[in-house]
Amino acid sequence: MKNIMKMFVALFVVGIILPSCDKKNNENSSLSPEHKKALEQVSQDRRAGMEFLIKYMPDRDREELSADYLLEHVNLAYEARNAHDWAKNIPEEIFLNDVLPYASFNEKRESWRRDFRDRFSKYVNNSQTLEEAVRAINENAKEELEVIYSTERPKPDQAPQESMSCGLASCTGLSVLLVDAFRSVGIPARIAGTPNWTQKQGNHNWVEVWIDGVWYFTEYYFDDLDQAWFLNDAGQANPNDKKYWIYATSFKPTSDSVHFPLVWDLDIQYVNAENVTDRYISIYKEKNEEEKAKLDGKAKVEIKMFKDNVCSQIGDNRVSEEVQVFDKDGNLQGEGVTSAPEEDMNKILTMYLAKNKIYNLRYKNSSGKLKVEELNISEDKYNIVLFFNE
């Protein structure tokens, strides 16, 4: 009886083990030679990352990417993760989906990670927290990469080196640059955007960063976290119509199988995404209440500066110059810098000034001469246009 029981247990175990071995062999047999090589050469502590990329990569990458390419991205991503305590503490699922990936959209697959880590690690070496690291990258990306916003860029879906070689990029190209800068030092980042605004024509893409369990939005032209010119438009998104949703990229498929619509090629369906529309509507409502508080007895004053009044509404005619506003007693009431040509046309210097008062607006023109404009504030909103060459 005892021998019969032993035989039964042995057969039972074989019956369990063999199918699992067969399954593993079947999975391995479907791998390309390059994928097998990558899995063989990656260290055991980084194997989960390699398996993640191979499992969820688009079919186009499955056919094209070499083992060396994948190994470089995986090894450098793990090195960045191990370099700082704030990076080590990022949850595994966030690291895999939002630090490790080598691309965001359909951009050319480049080996950007080593160059970007060399460029950006110096900015985060003294960061004690993830938020400090985020701000350090955001505040230095533009100067480090020397790429400016321009509709004259060669194409919308530029990879990092493509943007850096010409020095120009659209909002999409700038977002790719910033996401890769964040990821290169171990910061979780992804691209967010909408294919269509509800209140006006056009689309826009920007960046989100993960800090201690919360996703915050930011841009290449940094103001602050969860603060950007487009929030008013994003807050008007229509949650009932996919054309007007706010999307956030994901390397692996999301639970509701959403895809990020790429306006330059709507046939592409392999960019996975999360629908984050409701979050932006919620943030907008909260910020809108804050703005209402700012407007209590005050006027919203938007200030633009152009070179001259010949073609003042052309973006390339804009001038970035410091502007200060004083009351009649000489007390500073507001200051800031007007938007530069390379910044988004919707980004405007804004101040909130008490109504029924007279102010002096001051700036220096192209000759260095101090110019003074008198503002008699009595209405709710003003659009002030200044000319630098006068």
Automatic annotation (TrEMBL):
InterPro entries hit by this protein? Papain-like_cys_pep_sf (IPR038765), Transglutaminase-like (IPR002931)
Pfam families found in the cross-reference section = Transglut_core (PF01841)
Q: Which residues form the Transglutaminase-like domain?
A: 163-222
Task: Identify the domain of life.
Answer: Bacteria
**Record protein name field:** Transglutaminase-like domain-containing protein
